[in-house]
Amino acid sequence: MCSGVPGCGLRGAGALIFKAVRDGRPYPDHGFSTRDWAMIPPRQIRLDTLVTTKRQLELDALLADDSTFYGDLFPHAVQWKGELFLEDGLHRALRAALQQRNVIHVRVLDLDSLMPTA
């Protein structure tokens, strides 16, 4: 349905939450570890510029108070061919949207800079 379709995403109160919803990662494996991600400073990103890489939500994860207890506080996104793909943190991003926030802090790995295409 929405897989990779521009402008198609989860909607709330008549407004677009995500730019698009995909199933899977279209970019090459980057091999970044948790420690590598921690070296990237978070920056503010609008939710409606993110393309999700997961189509399934787990309600228990969405509602859990301690969902980031063992992980990074900040979602992870990968910039690839000019698009921002939300690799990790879908539930955190959706919680922000449910709290009427349209901007979140995200660690962004810029593969466009690291792997320039010919």
TrEMBL record:
It comes from the Bacteria. This is Transcription regulator of the Arc/MetJ class. It comes from Klenkia taihuensis.
